Amino acid sequence: MTPLHTLFLKERRLLSTSGEVSLLKKDPWLAANLSMFFPGIGQFYAGKPIKGLIFFTFQLTLLISGVWSIFAPDGKILRGFIILLLAGVFYLFNMLDALLDVHHHQKHENAEKIPRKHKNPWFAVFISRILPGLGHIYLSRSILGLILLCISLIFLQLNNFSDILLFAVPLLTAIAIYDVYLAFPQHPTDKKRSLVAILAGIVFFTGLLGTYLPKWLDHHFEQFIIPSPSMMPTLQVGDRVLVTQSTNYQPQRGDIVVFHPPEALKDAETETAEFFIKRVIGLPGDSISVRQNQVYLNEQALNEPYIAQPPLYHLNSLKVPPNAYFLLGDNRNDSLDSHVWGFLPQELIFGKAYKISWPLNRVQSLRTTSF
């Protein structure tokens, strides 16, 4: 049985003064809190499991489809953004739906949807999850609320400078909701304290996941802006490309790779950029030559429909050494590449460019069939 399931059961029951078990009236703001974790959970709590399953499945489908559309080589970026926007709207609607599902079944139909006269601890928890300190201000503990609010805003800004501080806001949120729930006049029992502590722990771990996920995506999917015409017509100046990073990546012929410049390239460039992008032509052990406006790989003429024009230079046959690669720009006659500065050591390769992500009218896969 999961902690959340235990929370549902415990919240619904309480020992009366006579020792008999009685059902508690469900709280609409607890339903909203549960749906804040993921759509459908609040509907389950409200006693509508089929609707809960539909909400859960629909949201999961939206998220998977949106992320795939943005990051998959053949996915459409605009469609992905639209789907994720729809997922955000549906997420908000789901919390409102869970709230109303419980509210409409209360005995007192005129009860406040947003509690003002009669303070509600679960409403305080809800707004504390949005921003720590709001629940305390709602409870008229303004000084503590403002302190928590200011600290939260400070840490949200510091997150941009150090990954170590990413845990701070989720931890502060968990502490705030635990404290604000216990601050209500009706003192909770030890069981209630334990349940709120479990909820706070879940809030911390889900908040931590939501905070680190964008960092994980940034680490595995980098975006680069094309600064020069050396890869035209495949890549235009100003195009943004998605690049995957992997320590196990083994470049294949035809791959477009982003790399750090070797020493020979640094010497050839007066203002060397931190990264360059070219196409892999030769692997370790391959023989490369350029003659009569044609690139030859292992004495076989390459069919290269992606180049701007045939190369106008000559290159005697070279053998690619171990752990190195021979790279050329698609704009052969306007590219500072391996025909000028030599072979690229494998350790300088940053990752594989696999998709143009911007502008929207140029979104396309960069996958090519190895030749």
How would you describe this protein?
44% of the residues lie in helices and 17% in strands. With 371 residues, the protein is α+β, with helices and mostly antiparallel strands. Strands 3, 4, 5, 6, 11, 12, 13 and 14 form an eight-stranded antiparallel β-sheet that branches. Strands 9-8-7-10 form a four-stranded antiparallel β-sheet, with no helix packed on it. The radius of gyration is 29 Å and the shape is elongated.
Secondary-structure blueprint of this entry?
Layout: H1 3-12, E1 13-15, E2 21-23, H2 28-37, H3 41-45, H4 49-71, H5 77-103, H6 121-130, H7 134-138, H8 142-158, H9 168-182, H10 190-220, E3 221-225, E4 240-244, E5 256-259, H11 263-268, E6 276-282, E7 287-291, E8 294-297, E9 300-301, E10 315-319, E11 324-328, H12 338-341, E12 344-345, E13 349-358, E14 364-365
Antiparallel strand pairs: 1-2, 3-4, 4-13, 5-6, 5-13, 6-11, 7-8, 7-10, 8-9, 11-12, 13-14
Helix pairs in contact: 1-10, 2-5, 2-6, 4-5, 6-9, 8-9, 9-10
